[in-house]
Amino acid sequence: MRVWFVLVHDLLALGTVAATEPPGAALSALVLSNPVSPSGCSC
Question: Distance between CA 2 and CA 41 in Å, rounded?
């Protein structure tokens, strides 16, 4: 279930960036709000 949440979150963030070209601060907020931390990856 968590994987789907993360996928949907990332797709919405990507769509927002593509549609609006937000300023740097907003883009940083989108990146930092990602629900999966890089260190938490179980790759």
Answer: 13
